[in-house]
């Protein structure tokens, strides 16, 4: 086998290969359909264009998905992130709306601190239910998913709170160095979560707990603390996403803010290669997954697919993405394409490729 | 044994995994009506060969023929349908389902899509009667002992008119009586013309039941021999590829006097520690540098003692003192804080974290003790891991391979390394040599002797009395969840005396021996 052949295998074997390939195909399809899709123009010192929009709009999903990745890695799941988005956004907006000077930086920072603080409390609530009381994560977080919407309505008193605060609006729509501020916030959050998990031993310990909780306990890991921390982290990420979502429209809607974002986030995590059963997690994969989902949403609008059927379209694409990533499915496809399994060329080439791996 | 045509031949089988060449041009054949033992150390390729045969893995090279036809199974289901059934070491059945459901799950007799439960139960009863087992087929499988579960797994395997029955370490969790029962069934099936492939680590069992032996070493075929022509010692030499001297080394070491060992404050003093339903209150002292053996039958409470001592289970009475001071020990993390380590007998479920690499598995306990905020610097990790990979001869020697790719014996060594890295003062080893080959076994025994010379205390739990006697300074005997005796391991102590203690007052157990 040639050297390029083995290199090609090394590339396709990389776990980020398929998510990247899907993203590229999606962008290419859009460009063919609408040649101006990838064009970016400078206007007023800021960059504008569909790619920039995709980056900006995917920022909240990236945030939520980062937290979700860590929770899923422990073997859990957090269904309450959408509600946490709504509650944090609602609290921040309702505080700002009651202040005389909505443009004051101090007011906005206080509002953010309030929203962030309540998210930490909510995350701790989830953490206690799962790690201390021992309720199954899907049930434990379902409580807050449902009750949280009520809590958000309570904060907004059933109204849609509209605010008029430039600094707050900037979280969603502001620009820094020609790019949307939201992109930088998402990037910073990603780096922070990566540092938090990979610069410390937290990541490995989480993966260990998610991979085999019994063995981890016997190795001396206090898994309760780790799991608790994961839910707090997830809620904190959701809070920031909630600020962005409400800042985008300068209003807080307890019902609509962050609705179904938990499902998109779970999808992003799975597309990124983290197993729902827990264990190894991949933050870079998750970010790619979130970008894929946002690109898909944007494509649905760009291709004028009717909103009634857009969810169906999205579902079909997501199933395809998940299937193409599954090694078992790909193996079946290639086997069928090669014809009979006793094809003389295939087994020796496989064998030689394996032998190249240093023993 | 019938010298007819082989029912199964495997020719030139090769299989590689990333970083591991598991099989290289291995030939194997199996005749109808014989029990054929597949022998080899851990990592020799026994499991891989079986998995290639049953279609769990694809082969890289080589052919498999069944009754003269070339076959290539896409998975165990296809293999079973073609008459090649496997019973694995760990019983892969659902303990929450009934015995009958377990036997027929996946191929229930149906009429118009509905399962015919009456038929299921009737046929299950027939099958079990053939194996001379009298069970309530409607009772949940979990209500029976592990041995009976194993028999049910065999019943499931032979139902599909099996021509080849593969038994992968079926005896590793059975006691002597149960093994005899299993062998009776194996001979019966052999006489019915079924070809049985038998994998075990117990040499005596091979000679008790096998007609022919195939030996593998390092993924290569050493040879195929009629068992009558292969003395036990030669077999061992062929398996490990060198002559056996290691064991004698340990025996020849002057054994330090227990009286001098037991001077001063014990490292760990257990007083009246117990947990209802698990083990009656027991007291035990362990001194630095002392190896305490724990003997007893399966289910006699050996593991429960270890788990209480380590805080894996919460004791409901009694106290553990460390260095003479009450420790208030209640969790594994606290135990580790006191310098206690525990290697569970259940490697897969309670030991390794399969997804993580060899390196991560090794440093896990040390990292847990430091807390997540103080990661072990990567260079230090690499140093530690390299040292123990070398010292314990872990293969493959690549620390970044996921630990699940390692053979059972090497996984056991990784777990040992995990605890040795924490430099424990007391290491609890629960069946550290079970299900691993003779080479790794002697290495681990040697290691235990070395560690105790270096001042580490070891609580050594094993079903093999010879092993316990060879290593221990003191033997505690468990019987029916009670610690019935503590015997100093001096010249007067031998396997017979320990066995008598285990059996004392129980004529049933005595009869079995």
UniProtKB/TrEMBL annotation, chain A:
Residue ranges, annotated region (Disordered): 334-359
Transmembrane segments: 16-34, 54-72, 79-97, 103-122, 129-152, 172-196, 226-245, 257-278, 285-305, 311-329
Subcellular location per the Swiss-Prot or TrEMBL entry: Cell membrane
Keywords, ordered alphabetically: Cell membrane, Membrane, Transmembrane, Transmembrane helix
Any Pfam family: BPD_transp_2
UniProt-listed PANTHER family: ABC TRANSPORTER PERMEASE PROTEIN YPHD-RELATED-RELATED, GALACTOFURANOSE TRANSPORTER PERMEASE PROTEIN YTFT
InterPro entries with a match to the protein in the record: ABC_transp_permease (IPR001851)
GO-annotated molecular function: transmembrane transporter activity
Name assigned to this protein: ABC transporter permease
Topology of the protein relative to the lipid bilayer: Multi-pass membrane protein
CDD domains for the chain: TM_PBP1_transp_AraH_like (cd06579)
GO CC list: plasma membrane
Automatic annotation (TrEMBL), chain B:
Keyword Nucleotide-binding assigned: yes
CC annotations in GO: plasma membrane
Keyword Cytoplasm part of the UniProt annotation: no
Residues of the ABC transporter domain: 8-243, 259-505
Entry's localization field: Cell membrane
Primary location recorded for the protein, binned into one broad class: membrane
GO molecular function, one term: ATP hydrolysis activity
Pfam families: ABC_tran
Alphabetized UniProt keyword annotations: ATP-binding, Cell membrane, Membrane, Nucleotide-binding, Repeat, Translocase, Transport
Entry-linked SMART domains: AAA (SM00382)
Membrane topology: Peripheral membrane protein
Protein name in the entry: Sugar ABC transporter ATP-binding protein
């Amino acid at each position: 086998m040639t050297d390029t052949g083995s290199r090609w295998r090394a590339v396709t074997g990389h776990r980020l290969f398929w998510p990247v390939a899907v993203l590229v195909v999606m962008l290419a399809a859009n460009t063919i359909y609408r040649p101006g899709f990838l064009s970016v123009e400078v206007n007023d010192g800021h960059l504008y264009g569909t790619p920039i929009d995709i980056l900006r709009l995917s920022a909240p999903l990236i945030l939520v998905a980062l937290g979700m990745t860590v929770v899923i890695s422990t073997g859990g799941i957090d269904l309450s992130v959408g509600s946490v988005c709504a509650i944090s956004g609602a609290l921040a907006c309702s505080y700002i709306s009651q202040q005389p000077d909505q443009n004051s930086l101090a007011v906005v920072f206080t509002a953010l601190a309030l929203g962030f603080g309540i998210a930490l409390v909510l995350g701790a609530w989830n953490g206690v239910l799962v790690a201390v009381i021992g309720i199954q994560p899907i049930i434990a977080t379902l409580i807050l998913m449902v009750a949280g919407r009520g809590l958000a309505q309570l904060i907004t008193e059933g109204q849609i709170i509209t605010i008029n605060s430039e600094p707050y609006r900037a979280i969603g729509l502001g620009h820094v160095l020609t790019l949307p501020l939201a992109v930088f916030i998402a990037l910073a959050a990603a780096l922070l979560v990566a540092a938090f998990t990979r610069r410390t031993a937290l990541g490995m310990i989480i993966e260990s707990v998610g991979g085999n909780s019994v063995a981890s306990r016997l190795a001396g890991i206090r898994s309760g603390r780790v799991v608790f921390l994961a839910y707090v982290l997830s809620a904190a990420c959701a809070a920031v996403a909630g600020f962005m979502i409400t800042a985008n429209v300068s209003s807080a809607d307890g019902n609509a803010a962050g609705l179904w974002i938990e499902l998109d986030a779970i999808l992003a995590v799975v597309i990124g290669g983290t197993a729902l059963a827990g264990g190894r997690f991949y933050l870079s994969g998750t970010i790619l997954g979130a970008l894929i989902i946002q690109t898909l949403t944007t494509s649905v609008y760009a291709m004028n697919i009717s909103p009634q059927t857009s969810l169906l379209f999205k579902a079909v694409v997501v199933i395809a993405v998940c299937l193409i990533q599954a090694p078992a499915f790909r193996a079946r496809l290639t086997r069928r394409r090669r014809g009979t399994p006793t094809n003389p060329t295939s087994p020796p080439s496989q064998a030689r490729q394996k032998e190249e791996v240093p023993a | 044994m019938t010298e007819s045509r082989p029912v199964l031949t495997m020719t030139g089988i090769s299989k590689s995994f990333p970083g591991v060449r598991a099989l290289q041009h291995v030939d194997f054949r199996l005749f109808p009506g014989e029990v054929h033992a597949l022998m080899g150390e851990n990592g020799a390729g026994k499991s891989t060969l079986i998995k290639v045969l049953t279609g769990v893995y694809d082969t890289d090279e080589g052919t498999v023929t069944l009754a003269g036809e070339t076959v290539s199974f896409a998975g165990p289901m296809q293999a079973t349908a073609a008459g090649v059934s496997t019973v694995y070491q760990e019983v892969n059945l659902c303990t929450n389902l009934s015995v009958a459901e377990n036997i027929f799950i996946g191929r229930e007799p149906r009429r118009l899509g509905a399962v015919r439960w009456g038929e299921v139960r009737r046929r299950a009863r027939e099958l079990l009667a053939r194996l001379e087992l009298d069970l309530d087929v409607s009772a949940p499988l979990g209500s029976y002992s592990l041995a009976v579960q194993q028999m049910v797994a065999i019943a499931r395997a032979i139902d599909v008119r099996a021509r080849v029955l593969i038994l992968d370490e079926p005896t590793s969790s059975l006691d002597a009586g149960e093994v005899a029962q299993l062998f009776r069934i194996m001979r019966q099936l052999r006489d019915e013309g079924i070809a049985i492939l038998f994998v075990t680590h117990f040499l005596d069992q091979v000679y008790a039941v096998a007609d022919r032996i195939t030996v593998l070493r390092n993924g290569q075929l050493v040879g195929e021999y009629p068992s009558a022509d292969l003395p036990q010692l030669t077999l061992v030499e062929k398996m490990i590829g060198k002559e056996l001297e290691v064991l004698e080394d340990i025996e020849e070491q002057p054994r330090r006097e227990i009286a001098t060992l037991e001077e001063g404050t014990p490292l760990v003093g257990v007083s009246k520690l117990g947990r209802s339903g698990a083990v009656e209150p027991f007291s035990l002292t362990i001194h630095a540098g002392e190896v305490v053996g724990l003997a007893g039958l399966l289910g006699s409470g050996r593991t429960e003692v270890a788990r209480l001592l380590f805080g894996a289970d919460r004791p409901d009475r009694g106290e553990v003192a460390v260095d003479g001071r009450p420790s208030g020990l209640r969790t594994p993390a606290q135990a580790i804080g006191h310098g206690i380590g525990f290697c569970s007998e259940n490697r897969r479920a309670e030991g390794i974290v399969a997804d993580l690499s060899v390196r991560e598995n090794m440093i896990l306990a040390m990292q847990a003790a430091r807390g997540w905020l103080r990661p072990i610097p990567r260079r230090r990790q690499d140093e530690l891991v390299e040292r123990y990979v070398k010292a314990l001869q872990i293969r493959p020697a690549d620390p970044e391979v996921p630990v699940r790719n390692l053979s059972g014996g090497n996984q056991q060594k990784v777990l040992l390394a995990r605890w040795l890295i924490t430099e424990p003062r007391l290491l609890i080893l629960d069946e550290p040599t079970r299900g691993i080959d003779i080479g790794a076994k002697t290495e681990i025994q040697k290691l235990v002797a070395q560690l105790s010379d270096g001042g580490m205390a070891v609580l050594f739990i094993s079903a093999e009395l010879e092993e316990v006697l060879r290593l221990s300074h003191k033997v505690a005997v468990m019987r029916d969840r009670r610690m019935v005796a503590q015997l100093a391991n001096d010249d007067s102590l031998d396997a017979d005396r320990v066995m008598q203690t285990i059996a004392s007052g129980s004529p049933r157990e005595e009869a079995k021996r």
